[in-house]
Amino acid sequence: MEGSANERLDFGKMGYGCKHYRRRCKIRAPCCNEIFDCRHCHNEATSMLRNPYDRHEIVRQDVKQVICSVCDTEQPVAQVCTNCGVNMGEYFCEICKFYDDDTEKGQFHCYDCGICRVGGRENFFHCKRCGSCYATSLRDNHLCVENSMHHHCPICYEFLFDSLKDTTVMKCGHTMHYECYNEMIKRDKYCCPICSKSVIDMSRTWKRIDEEIEATLMPEDYRYKKVWILCNDCNDTTEVYFHIIGQKCSHCKSYNTRTIAPPVLPQ
To answer: How far apart are CA 59 and CA 179, in angstroms?
Structure first.
């Protein structure tokens, strides 16, 4: 009997679901009372509604009813179907109302984040200041920015906190999608779109600019012209000689600078 019970629980495993999750149930959205394979299917469908005021996203914790994909029985949220006895999700989180048969993802619920994550609990830690889970390799090895994950990706503008895509933390502490970051680097954009700090080691580039400036003599009228600059990398302000190729920060030697108005001296 025990073997038969286990077989019943596993019946249909990985055979149902959508492009987002393999699972043996659908959800009834509490916001619009419609049935969807998962919350992402709901959000994608409602985001395409013609009337912008009808567009909305589901609150995962508010889901109360699910429909078994094997026997079509609608029932309150639970892991095992009350009618046919199948596991509607090998992984089940009662808090997030989340089901998934593909346990190789290493799903776990982070109580500090308040949602389920993937990748294995042992591989992540929750950074209280940043307000999100990061890979253990970043413990004591990243610049904290308060609630850095609670904003939209600066490239594609998808909300990062519960995004299904991998994210990366830049040197400045700001975050964005990993694929968006790689695309940005491919297009020779090496500054954070949020704070403008350099996101990679630019020392070789600065050396090449030094050589170009040394080889490029400015016209007499501009040779001794000075301007005030703000360095995006170290936030220092200095007065330097103007050059058409670029202005070098006197403090950190970066060319990631911009001209600013001269400081106003007290009267």
So the answer is: 27
Instruction: Tokens for 121, please give them.
Output: 């609990």
* Residue at 21: amino acid letter: Y
What share of residues in the chain are helix, strand, coil (percent, to 5)? 20, 25, 55
153 phi, psi to nearest 5 deg:
-60, 130
Contact assessment for residue 96 and residue 23, using Cβ atoms and an 8 Å cutoff: no
Helix (H) or strand (E) run with residue 213 in it: helix 203-215
Q: Evaluate the CA torsion angle 219, 225, 226, 232 in order and state its sign.
A: negative
Distance separating alpha carbons of residues 56 and 246, to the nearest angstrom = 47
Would you tell me how many other CB atoms lie within 10 Å of the CB of residue 89?
24
What is the predicted pLDDT for the residue at 110? Answer: 96
CA dist., res. 139 & res. 12, Å (int): 40
Exposed (0-12), middle (13-18) or buried (19+): which is 150, by Cβ within 10 Å? middle
Output the CA–CA distances (angstroms, integers) from residue 99 to 78, 173, 207, in the order listed: 10, 32, 54
Q: What is the pLDDT of residues 166-195, one digit of tens each?
A: 999 999 999 999 999 999 999 999 999 999
| pTM metric for this prediction | 0.80
Q: Any idea what the Cα angle at residue 180 is, between residues 177 and 186, rounded to 5°?
A: 145
pLDDT over 60 (residue 98)? yes
